[in-house]
Amino acid sequence: MKRIFSIFFAVLIAVAMNAQELAPKLKALPGITSVQQLETELFPEKYVVTINQQVDQKKQDKGTFEQRVIVCHAGFDRPTVLVTEGYWATYALNPRYMDELAKLFNTNIVFVEYRYFGESFPDPCDWDQLTVANSLADLHNVRETFGQLYKGKWISTGISKGGQTTMFYRSYYPDDVDISVPYVAPLNKALEDGRHEIFLSKLVGTPEERAKIEAFQTEILKRRATLVPMFKKHCEEKKYEFRVPVEEIFDLCVAEYPFAMWQWGSSVDEIPALDSDDATLSAYLIGKNEPDYFAVQTPYYSFNVQAAREIGYYGYDITPFKGLTSVKSHKDYLRRVMLGGEEQHIKFDKTLYKHVVKFLKKNDPKMIYIYGGIDPWSASGVCEWLDTSKKENLRIYVKERGSHSTRINSFEEPIRNEIISTLEKWLAE
């Protein structure tokens, strides 16, 4: 028994000593402005760190801001996963947070909150500086800074907008990391890309499933005389404010429904019977599409700015509902409804899209794309045009009936093992 206690206390002392060693190393890194230890159940040590970044990476006179970075430490001899988050870092503060790749390969994690989100917001706010180029320069600085501690292989990864960021980052700084794994990452070619509407109306699911969804939308719109007042009351209770009449917000929620439904893999069996009472239909619609998505108070305003400027988005085809909606078209809805002030006049720049397409066609990085087959974002993914048959490294995997939640572990064992074996091989090279 004494021996067991001796071993136990020796382990505790070793962990304490390691903690004392890592924090000073983090504080000594250039540009680090704060280091705070976090609770963790899955790593020997974990810290939230802030790093000083240029607001405009090309012009120092534009000032600086502090960017939040979460560091999960597995060991200086381990590979490092660089999570290129597209939004907030808040969920990574959880003591049980673990990235899929970090779990598979026992890696460190350097998790970077995206500029203009969460605690990484410049003050004053200059929306002109919320560009992909500046965000990638943020990542490059983080990589160079923390690379002084972590000398092993680096894997960049992200989900959705974070997956986009992983893709953009590899194309602009191809030598920063050894491997890239973007999850469910779209590459949109316009503010309203156009491919999502075709996907939803003709390609996703079965004809019977698509017909059931359209029938539900039609029934909702036919009952607008009774459902819009219920919808309006809900919005008033939530204190939502909108830039257009609430009748159009109602129509937008109906238009958004199939995208949201397929994105998260909901079953058409959940759709209420068309003869259900008004309260049942209203509750189901709002449950799938909370109207705050279109509200002035949206927490996604920074995303909306980027969508309008260069990362693009999707449109709505409401031609099947002619005569049932309050407007004839939702064209340019993101600018009209989801942006305010000068941001409504942002013009979409296709340069980013062209750059990434050219990079992926001409190069063969160690890169694995993960997509879900029913996820509408896959419609503007790289699957359609990127030929990997002559690539030695670059690979694309699409999970049949997979949603926006598709990950490596979502695949059946043969494919899952293939992906993991490829990553293991690259890490060992």
Can you summarize this structure?
By secondary structure, the chain is of the alpha/beta class. 41% of the residues lie in helices and 15% in strands.
> Can you count the beta strands?
9
* Rg, Å, rounded: 24 Å
CATH architecture of the largest domain: 3-Layer(aba) Sandwich
Helix content: 40-55%
SSE pattern, N- to C-terminal: HEEEEHEHEHEHHHHHHHHEEH
The coarse overall form would be globular
Report the major sheet: 7 strands, mixed
Please tell me the overall pLDDT: 95
The total count of helices amounts to 13
Q: Segments where pLDDT lies below 50 for 5+ residues?
A: 1-19
Output the CATH class name of the largest domain. Answer: Alpha Beta
Beta-strand residue percentage:
5-15%
Structure class: alpha/beta
Domain module count = 2
Distance between the termini: 45 Å
CATH fold naming of the largest domain: Rossmann fold
CATH superfamily of the largest domain: Alpha/Beta hydrolase fold, catalytic domain
Strands across the major sheet, in which order?
1-2-3-5-4-6-7
